[in-house]
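Bench notes, afternoon.
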Amino acid sequence: MEPLSLATPRLTLRPFAPSDADAVHAACQDPDIPRYTSVPSPYTREDARTFLEETCPAGWRDDSMYTWGLFTRDEGQLVGSMCLARLAQLRSPERQAELGYWTAKERRGRGYTAEAAREVARWGFEELGVERLEWYAEAGNTGSRAVALKVGFRMEGTQRAKIPYAGTRRDAWVGSLLPSDLGLPSGAPYLPFPERA
């Protein structure tokens, strides 16, 4: 897919550009970002260059991961990063994708990431035909969980040893969002287990 931009009332979601390297490098110096994501630690300028110039464009090109930089509309300041991943499952009956994100420390607590996530979810449901959007984070990552809940994800539990981290395996909180959770139609009807209905 050709990279594209999205917009919300306060944010521009656009493909990252090489000129964003300084802002991404600075944001990823916050120890919570590599602690709870796959961002390398320590995070170098070369890591930022590789992410912006190789990883992100390749994800759009091969339809494996669509990544946006989140920027304030008024000042163009970096808020964070968001992606739809595991897109290979869209070409199968599962029609699933995964939502991932990080937020720059100084932009947290303002609702920006939830605002962006709602727009990315809506776009995924309406334009890509996603029928189930998944989220997971290391158990204990209350900030990421708060964003997911604000968007409307339903928490489904804890998966044991899902996340490899620093030579260990960590538990993960997991949740899902369906088109119907946002009042949108789905390509396949959902038939919940009677006890859940």
